[in-house]
Specification:
With 486 residues, this protein is α+β, with helices and mostly antiparallel strands. It folds into 3 domains: 5-62 and 159-193, Ribosomal Protein S8, Chain: A, domain 1 (2-Layer Sandwich), CATH 3.30.1370; 64-153, no CATH class; 215-475, BirA Bifunctional Protein, domain 2 (2-Layer Sandwich), CATH 3.30.930.10. 36% of the residues lie in helices and 22% in strands. It contains 19 helices and 15 strands. The chain has helices at 5-16, 22-29, 34-46, 64-72, 75-82, 90-97, 99-107, 128-134, 144-151, 183-188, 214-228, 243-246, 278-289, 304-308, 317-329, 371-385, 426-432, 448-455, 470-475; strands spanning 18-19, 50-62, 88-89, 111-114, 117-120, 155-167, 232-233, 240-242, 310-312, 335-344, 356-367, 390-397, 400-410, 414-424, 438-446. Strand 4 and strand 5 form a beta hairpin. The longest helix has 15 residues, at 214-228. The chain is rod-shaped, with a radius of gyration of 49 Å. The site of phenylalanine (PHE) has 10 residues, from strand 14 and strand 15. Its cofactor is Mg(2+). Its EC number is 6.1.1.20. Residues 216-482 form the Aminoacyl-transfer RNA synthetases class-II family profile domain. This is phenylalanine--tRNA ligase.
């Protein structure tokens, strides 16, 4: 950076509109590094603040010999001055001062050869060559004098490049280059009018780790849709649950096959837990064993030991039952809840089944809700995910009536079940203390299956578990679901 350069440049351009030669500008300001000046000019040019026109000029300059002639006299003058009164031999004169100097002094008739000796011919001569060199700038560049000086190698022609500087398109809105991109600039979008010292549009380096798993991307997408649709998230941070909240509270009989070790993982240590009130326990006990609230119940010998058994939760509906109980106890208000978290089942593994998977749970509690609300919610929810081809089928669930399964179309596997839903039975809701006219529509969806549909994956193992391909995770787009649902 040349000191003061910008100031001088813009003052001159403001005044004159144009600078004919960058070299003259250097001379006028005592800058000896023309190259550096051109560097500064180019950086303004790249911002369209100035335009540059590169030109060449040739000029006549003194050669090294020419410089020495200006200082010490021309070679023929030096020879002439050195000839003593008695003369010197031709040989010596030639050897000492050179043939050119000798020829030139002789040609100008400053010396003669008299009997083999070189002698001065006239006195008080003037060094015309030196005078010409001193006066070089005023000579006619095409004249005979210049030709003679060039032949004698006292002057030479040099070409020099320089540039003509004019105002550029952005001359009037020129700004200093910014060295920082600040949060403020981003907020106000003022960065668009700035020029930066660095390339602020360069893509960052791709990190070598820390890519989001496709399931977690889909999870985030699901969550976003629930939140947009007015749902609150339920706390699901307990993989271990007791059978009471996972099954009994849901009016699922204790002899139901789902409660078998073939379907459920039981815990050895701690094998049991008890975190429900006696009052609620008594109501659940009664409705299972003898019936209540106009229901005949399941009619079997209900056992507390069975309800206390710890398991890995088989569904997040266990969380829903805790939430609904709490809602009933704290005073009912209409609610929409959701959760997305892991559940565990002792399954035979295949392309669409794993022993752990993620469940997308939804609960809507309000007065007079029906199955058509559920159908409406699913249609809207899946549409927002970009899945429009869904179908429903009547189903059976111990804790819902009516119940309905939801299916989606996989591009290769055909129709696959996405989840199960229904209206919770009064035998589940009334012991909790919910008002009799409150209906609760609920569902449990798989997170993996819609993901398989959207990513066109044939096996659940390619998104969850050991077979996961790390490269496909790295190369996956941020999310596969469309953001425009029109
Ligand atoms: N819990 C059921 C399952 O795991 C899903 C479900 C939830 C069904 C709520 C009805 C109501 O498949």
């Amino acid at each position: 950076m040349v000191a003061n350069f910008d100031q001088v440049l813009f003052e001159t351009l403001d005044k004159d509109g144009v600078i004919e030669s960058s070299r003259q500008m250097c001379q006028a300001n005592g800058w000896d590094d023309h190259q550096a000046v051109v560097g500064d000019l180019k950086s303004w040019e790249s911002m369209n603040v100035v335009t540059l026109e590169f030109k060449e000029s040739s000029s006549l300059n003194l050669t090294e010999n020419g410089e020495s002639a200006v200082k010490n006299g021309s070679p023929e003058f030096i020879l002439y001055s050195a000839v003593p009164a008695e003369g010197i031999s031709v040989k010596e004169a030639n050897e000492k001062f050179g043939a050119t100097a000798f020829g030139s002094a002789k040609g100008k008739q400053w010396i003669v050869i008299d009997k083999g000796l070189v002698k001065r011919k006239q006195d008080g001569i003037e060094d015309t060559t030196k005078n010409l060199l001193v006066n070089l700038a005023n000579l006619d560049p095409k004249g005979e004098d210049i030709k003679a000086l060039r032949r004698a190698k006292l002057v030479e022609e040099k070409t020099l490049s320089y540039c003509k500087i004019s105002k550029g398109e952005k001359y009037n809105i020129r700004k200093k280059e910014c060295s920082d991109l600040t949060a403020d600039m981003l907020k106000t979008e003022s960065w668009k009018d700035e020029t930066f010292k660095f390339n602020h549009l360069a893509l960052g380096e791709i990190p070598s780790s820390g890519f989001r798993h496709p399931l977690s991307k889909v999870k985030a997408e699901f969550k976003q849709i629930f939140i947009e649709m007015g749902f609150e998230e339920m706390p699901t941070a307990n993989f271990v649950e007791n059978s009471f909240w996972n099954f009994d509270a849901l009016f699922q009989p204790q002899q139901h096959p789902a409660r078998d070790a073939h379907d459920t993982f039981f815990l050895k240590d701690p094998a049991t837990s008890h975190d429900f009130t006696d009052d609620y326990l008594a109501k659940v006990h009664k409705v299972h064993q003898e019936g209540d609230y106009n229901s005949l119940g399941w009619r079997y010998d209900w056992k507390l030991e069975e309800a206390e058994k710890n398991i890995l939760r088989t569904h997040t509906t266990a969380v829903s039952s805790r939430m609904l109980y709490k809602l009933a106890q704290t005073g009912f208000k209409p609610k929409k809840y959701f959760s997305i978290d892991r559940v565990f089942r002792n399954e035979t593994l295949d392309a669409t089944h794993l022993a752990e998977f993620h469940q997308v749970e939804g609960v809507i509690a309000d007065v007079d809700i029906s199955l058509s609300h559920l159908i409406g919610i699913f249609t809207e929810f899946f549409k927002r995910l970009g899945i429009t081809d869904i179908s429903f089928k009547p189903a059976y669930n111990p804790y819902t009536e009516p119940s309905m399964e939801i299916f989606g179309k996989h591009p290769k596997l055909g129709r696959i079940e996405l989840g199960n839903s229904g209206l919770f039975r009064p035998e589940m809701l009334l012991p909790m203390g919910l008002p009799p006219n409150v209906r609760v529509a609920a569902w449990g969806l798989s997170l993996e299956r819609p993901t398989m549909i959207k990513y066109e994956l044939n096996s659940i193992r390619s998104i969850f578990g050991n077979d996961l391909n790390i490269n496909s995770i790295k190369s996956n787009p941020i999310c596969m679901f469309p953001t425009d649902f029109e």
